[in-house]
Amino acid sequence: FEFNDIKFKDQWYLHNTGQTGGPAGIDINVLPVWRSGITGRGVVISIIDDGVDYTHPDLRKNYDPRASYDFEKKIFDSTPNEKNWVNAHGTRCAGEIAAQANNKICGVGVAYNSRIGGIKLLSINMNDSFEAYALSFQNNYIDIYSNSWGPKDDGKSYGKPGELPTEALKKG
């Protein structure tokens, strides 16, 4: 597989040729999946996080506003409060999943033909009700919810979803 995206050569987890000094071939083995035609087409994924900058040139084409919501402003728009590229976690996650392929920009998403949305939840004082609603938002439309957030990591305590989010996950 050849892509013209300038950062693809650095995405060792997608195609490890030993470019970072590690053993070649240790990656997620996605090339055979792509060769079989599975690229995310027809799949809607929503990132529950701090927002998704859908104006990013690698995400713009695959962005799906119907799979997006801002719990703070109560609008169907997941723009982060700040375009802080040091901590643009939701945007970064969206790129890992759905960055457009062969547009000469950045890298390639693992499901580069999928539709991506953002559910901005982490900018508010979250409670079980908000968390449960986010985990079931548009559940007849969104196929996959990506959650890579959790409690503050102090190295000592362990957090888990409350009762309402757990029910939302079971029914999702």
From TrEMBL:
Protease in keyword set: yes
Protease is among the record's keywords: yes
Molecular function in Gene Ontology: serine-type endopeptidase activity
Residue span of region Disordered: 151-172
CC terms in the record's Gene Ontology section: Golgi membrane; trans-Golgi network
Family annotation (SUPFAM superfamilies): Subtilisin-like
Signal peptide: none
Family according to the record: Belongs to the peptidase S8 family.
PANTHER family documented for this protein: FURIN-LIKE PROTEASE 2 (PTHR42884:SF23), PROPROTEIN CONVERTASE SUBTILISIN/KEXIN-RELATED (PTHR42884)
Listed name of the protein: PC3-like endoprotease variant B (Trinotate prediction)
Organism classification: Eukaryota, Metazoa, Cnidaria, Myxozoa, Myxosporea
